[in-house]
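Quick one:
INPUT:
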């Protein structure tokens, strides 16, 4: 950059009503206008060098990292062209808003605006806001009150209020409730008295809230005549000043957060307003997130219930309400593999209602269906262990999977089945096996290995059932590996 062009740019920049610093990389010099000279305590001269800034230290307002003024020009503003710093002086700390920009021909400028002449309180509030934000990020149902009360105490304290509170609308939108309240020492609480308060009792207040989402009164006695209802309520509570901010979910007004002063009036500052609005937005977002979580949990639970219902429908026999063939096939396959891994026995019982076609033909299909339901229920009730499964195999045939059950115990289980069916005492005058409904039972017990298949187990149990029926029905038969004389044994 030529000296003439550089000087022309600087003549325009130094007239800005801010603190301005320019760095000319070609000349390796700094230029500082009169406001910046006063801010940093520099003597007036045409240009400056790095050494002139060596006594000045800035502190990043958020990271608390310290740096020299000259460092602002050299790769500091890589991600963000704006940042806040604190300048410590003899009697105060100044909060500075620093903006950085590149100019053509290797020049760059920094513009500084003084935001606050004493940042000690601002520091405290930053810490408070940080804590509130952290608390409300993952707010849960069981700790809502604790975090809201902390936020109310914080905002009431920094705004020099005597009370701070949260009001939420009832579901009908016609009444409001004081859900949370913080009061300073020796200040009367009114939370219990401010439940189900009709909005119509505060027409002026809610008219302003609906339009501006703000109610700011420095002196309650100065309220207009149309706010007579509000004025009466405030004076009854000895309120001298009020500041309230509306809480919104999306665009809907759902409540408000506020502060009031009782001991003495307060001229609410813009900083009070900013702080209250910030906390209000945090609370509104926290409530919104909480509602989203609750809705998500409800949706997830509905999906779980729907999946469970669907799974039950898919795996349950529609007539008998016990496991169907699909469920049986899956269960048997899984249990065979599990028992093979654990080197445990497994048993499969196949049973068939004796002469069920004759029952249907003579007693009718409606009674036949009732018989199927009663038999299924009896079989299901016998299966008491986790893993035991009674299923409708098809028609009048049922199957029972018994993991970790050997031949001896399976035979006892089959006897128990016959006893339970006999207890039903279902008359069957058209059966040649018994005057009452009976079952033929076949079972197969084995210790499976990795090569054992469901088809093999079902086939062998079915062979045993066939032999129980062939030898007169109402009997129990166990599958045995074929020998020269027989392949099953009868009990």
């Amino acid at each position: 950059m030529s000296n003439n062009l550089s000087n022309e740019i600087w003549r325009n920049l130094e007239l800005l009503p801010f603190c301005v610093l320019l760095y000319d990389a070609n000349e390796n010099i700094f230029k500082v206008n009169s406001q910046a000279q006063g801010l940093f305590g520099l003597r007036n001269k045409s240009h400056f060098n790095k050494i002139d800034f060596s006594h000045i230290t800035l502190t990043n307002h958020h990271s608390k990292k310290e740096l020299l003024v000259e460092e602002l020009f050299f790769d500091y503003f890589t991600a963000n062209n704006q940042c806040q710093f604190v300048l410590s002086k003899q009697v105060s700390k100044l909060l500075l808003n620093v903006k950085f920009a590149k100019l053509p021909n290797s020049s760059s400028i920094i513009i500084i605006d003084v935001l606050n002449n004493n940042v000690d309180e601002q520091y405290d509030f930053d810490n408070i806001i940080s804590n509130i934000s952290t608390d409300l990020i993952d707010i849960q149902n069981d700790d809502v009150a604790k975090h809201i009360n902390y936020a109310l105490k914080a905002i009431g304290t920094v705004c020099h209020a005597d009370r701070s509170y949260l009001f939420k609308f009832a579901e009908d939108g016609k009444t409001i409730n004081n859900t949370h309240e913080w009061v300073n020492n020796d200040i009367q609480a009114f939370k219990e008295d401010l439940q189900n308060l009709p909005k119509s009792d505060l027409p002026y207040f809610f008219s302003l809230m609906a339009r501006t989402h703000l109610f700011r009164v420095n002196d309650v006695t100065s309220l207009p005549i149309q706010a007579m209802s509000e004025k009466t309520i405030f004076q009854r509570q000895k309120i001298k000043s009020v500041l309230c901010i509306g809480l919104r979910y999306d665009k809907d007004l759902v409540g408000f957060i506020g502060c009031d002063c009782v001991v003495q009036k307060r001229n609410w500052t813009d900083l009070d307003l900013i702080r209250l609005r910030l906390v209000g937005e945090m609370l509104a977002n926290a409530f919104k997130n909480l509602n989203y979580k609750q809705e998500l949990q409800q949706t997830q639970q509905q999906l779980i219930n729907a999946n469970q219902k669907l799974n039950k429908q898919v795996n349950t026999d529609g007539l008998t309400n016990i496991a169907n063939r699909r469920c049986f096939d899956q269960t048997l396959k899984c249990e065979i593999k599990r028992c093979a891994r654990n080197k445990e026995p497994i048993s499969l019982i196949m049973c068939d209602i004796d002469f069920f076609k004759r029952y249907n033909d003579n007693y009718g299909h409606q009674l036949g269906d009732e018989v199927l339901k009663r038999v299924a229920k009896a079989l299901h009730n016998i299966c008491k262990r986790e893993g035991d499964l009674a299923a409708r195999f098809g028609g009048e045939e049922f199957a029972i999977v018994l993991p970790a059950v050997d031949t001896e115990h399976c035979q006892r289980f089959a006897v128990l089945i016959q006893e339970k069916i006999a207890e039903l005492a279902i008359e069957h005058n058209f059966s040649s096996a018994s005057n009452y409904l009976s079952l033929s039972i076949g079972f197969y017990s084995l210790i499976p290995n990795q090569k054992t298949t469901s088809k093999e187990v079902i086939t062998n149990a079915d062979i045993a059932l066939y032999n129980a029926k062939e030898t007169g029905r109402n009997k129990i038969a166990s599958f045995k590996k074929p020998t020269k004389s027989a392949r099953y044994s009868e009990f």
